[in-house]
């Protein structure tokens, strides 16, 4: 879309440059689709040169400019790793290429969620090669699959502030409503870090849409952590992510292995999601989204109470 109000485009990653009428530009797939009649400048971070994906023993850091296509390739790289490390940076000590570990996918089974969530875009290859992880989060659509992925895996966003500082915020606290984030004017999402503890979890994925190639109407991800904790993250059916966490040592009535019973999980959903929090648009009525949330939550609960060790999707 030709946004005829734009007076200039500036390549910068400095939030101090921001002023009213500016918008941060990464892939631009949403910005140029919807257009604007009020923007005057675009602050382009597309040429920032940030490393898209950094893998370490502590987990994975995704740059805000990491594209969907780059993220989608990560599980395959982990399964069939490259034989050489990335070129060394002159000002940095050499870093081990953890993707060269042939058992990384076995160590981090939650990596399987990446492709399930990327596929939930239901987008063309052109969108995949331009749309960014950070852009999807900052657009804050209830059905944003990068919100679903990173919130479910305890992602922590690093935000650059206009005064030159940084702050960390959990993804479920970054996206706070339909099209609304907790970012202050001018703040820039720099990266999202997913901890290794969450990546080692056994997971289950469920998604529903009103059509085969439609936007997600309900998307739930369940986790079973190494310590036995059960974590359920509800997205798409709700205006913002909702996360339920059940510690194995709690007094919650549980089935085998510490997963909450069906009745207790349903009661927890009742308490966590008031009726007005269910999303209402052309992709699904609130009543349908609520019913499907309970249905898929129980499917995930039942799956993770078993000894299955594989991530599955539906």
From TrEMBL:
Q: Which InterPro entries match?
A: Diverse_Substr_Oxidored (IPR051312), FAD-bd_PCMH (IPR016166), FAD-bd_PCMH-like_sf (IPR036318), FAD-bd_PCMH_sub2 (IPR016169), Mopterin_DH_FAD-bd (IPR002346)
Superkingdom of origin organism? Bacteria
- GO MF annotations, alphabetized: FAD binding; oxidoreductase activity
Domain FAD-binding PCMH-type positions = 1-199
The record, for SUPFAM superfamilies, names:
FAD-binding/transporter-associated domain-like
Q: Which PROSITE patterns match?
A: FAD_PCMH
Protein name, as recorded: FAD binding domain-containing protein
From which organism does this entry originate?
Answer: Arthrobacter terrae
